[in-house]
Amino acid sequence: AQEKGFAIYMLKALFNGYGDELVEVAKTNLLR
């Protein structure tokens, strides 16, 4: 259970840290 919680925490941290950048990259790629 702890491993899953840690993995989810890391995923959330990645999404929070790089989410905006990924969205911008996705937008530019989709628009092009």
From TrEMBL:
It comes from the Bacteria. Keywords: Pyruvate. This is Pyruvate dehydrogenase.
